[in-house]
Specification:
The protein is globular. Strands 3-2-1-4-5-6-11 form a 7-stranded parallel sheet, sandwiched between helices. Strands 7-10 form a two-stranded parallel ribbon. By secondary structure, the chain is α/β, with parallel strands linked by helices. Helices cover 40% and strands 17% of the residues. It binds UDP-4-deoxy-4-formamido-beta-L-arabinopyranose (WQD).
Length: 350
């Protein structure tokens, strides 16, 4: 049987590009479909070096129905992994309309084109942000979905509801939503990784840029939370573990055989919580460098603690995270050091 082609929307992005590697290594034929609004062509070069061949790539937008239809028909796509979305929480608060239009229009267009072409299998990129500030920890897939605290988070909640309702209506779609916790790290080759544009919002790229001398120091956003060391707790998962979870989810859909309609949700995290100071310490051990930091005020919108109960993915997808926090930080650091060799430090663009 021919190698099944899988369309990876947003496949030139951080999680998307690592999932392209995991798909190829699992015997699939990944096809990248990306408008490059939040990525660079250099990622495709990195993929070519890792995989040893040029991954087919369509530079196009998921809201462009004609382009999507043509790509999926031409590549005889048998499944889709949908990453393509705007994902900056703060930016979504400033520009809600742009976020609702892009993230929801892209998903609706994709589902319509899949139904038109008879493509059944879809993995949807969702987020632990749907849990808001959880009452109980660790969060399970049955933990309450709290009102979204950002338009970005709301587009993930609405996206899950759209997919659930389309399957409930009996449409021939087999869909899994994966709720990611905090993806960090990079491929061990340091040929692909996270490309934060502007000042990084997320903790780990900010740490690696500080260690690379692009930032004077890390500001820890508050140490007065109700946690052991006062700093926020998150579930940091190596992006390659997260990528491999997408392959496990796809395989579980294939195991459904003739069953045409299916919807399910999985938490994809390590199951371990780590505080901001835990991450700083682990980075110092992984990199061998002391990290300059100071404690600053809390960041609005941050929850004190959230980490996953990932036993459902273990039991039903046969997947668990295998890489450690220190491995992820070592890989993130190796990627940052390579970035610095590629482009001289240009602090205003960072
Ligand atoms: C982690 C911790 C900060 C930067 C975000 C999105 C979420 C998901 C994952 C898409 C927090 C602290 C950070 C800094 C700090 N993305 N921090 N100094 O906020 O848990 O989740 O990324 O789905 O939707 O919200 O990740 O890396 O921004 O923050 O102290 O300079 O690090 O306060 O406690 P977050 P983060």
């Amino acid at each position: 049987m021919a190698t099944p082609s899988i369309l990876v929307t947003g496949g030139a992005g951080f999680i998307g590009s690592h999932t392209v590697v995991a798909l190829a290594e699992a015997g699939y034929r990944p096809v990248v479909y990306d408008n490059f609004s939040n990525s660079q062509q250099s990622i495709l070069e990195g993929l070519r070096q890792i995989l040893g061949y040029e991954v087919p790539c369509y530079v196009a937008d998921c809201t462009h129905r004609g382009a999507l239809l043509e790509a999926m028909e031409r590549e005889q796509v048998q499944g889709v992994i949908h990453f393509a979305a705007f994902k900056a929480v703060g930016e979504s608060v400033q520009e809600p309309l742009r976020y609702y239009r892009n993230n929801l229009d892209a998903l609706l267009t994709l589902v319509e084109v899949m139904l038109e072409l008879g493509v059944h299998d879809l993995i949807f990129s969702s987020s632990c942000t749907v849990y808001g500030e959880p009452e109980q920890l660790p969060v399970t897939e049955h933990s309450p979905i709290l009102p979204a605290i950002s338009p970005y988070g709301n587009t993930k909640q609405i996206g899950e509801e759209i997919l659930r309702d389309v399957v409930r209506a009996g449409k021939p779609l087999r869909i899994i939503s994966l709720r990611y916790f905090n993806p960090i790290g990079a491929h061990p080759s340091a040929l692909i990784g996270e490309l934060p544009i502007g000042v990084p919002n997320n903790l780990v790229p900010y740490i690696t840029q500080t260690a690379a001398g692009l930032r004077p120091e890390l500001v820890v956003f508050g140490d007065d939370y109700p946690t052991p060391d006062g700093t926020c707790i998150r579930d940091y998962i190596h992006v390659m573990d997260l990528a491999e979870a997408h392959v496990a989810a796809l395989r579980s859909l294939e195991r459904l055989g003739a069953l045409a309609s299916h919807y399910d949700v999985f938490n994809i995290g390590t199951g371990e919580g780590a505080s901001v100071l835990d991450v700083v310490r682990a980075f110092e051990e992984a990199s061998g460098n002391a990290l300059p930091y100071r404690i600053g005020p809390r960041r609005p919108g941050d929850v004190a603690a959230v980490y996953a109960d990932a036993t459902k993915a273990r039991d039903q997808l046969g997947w668990t995270a295998r890489r450690t926090l220190r491995e992820a930080l070592a890989d993130a650091w190796r990627w940052e050091q390579r970035l610095q060799t590629l482009a001289p430090p240009n602090t205003e663009s960072h």
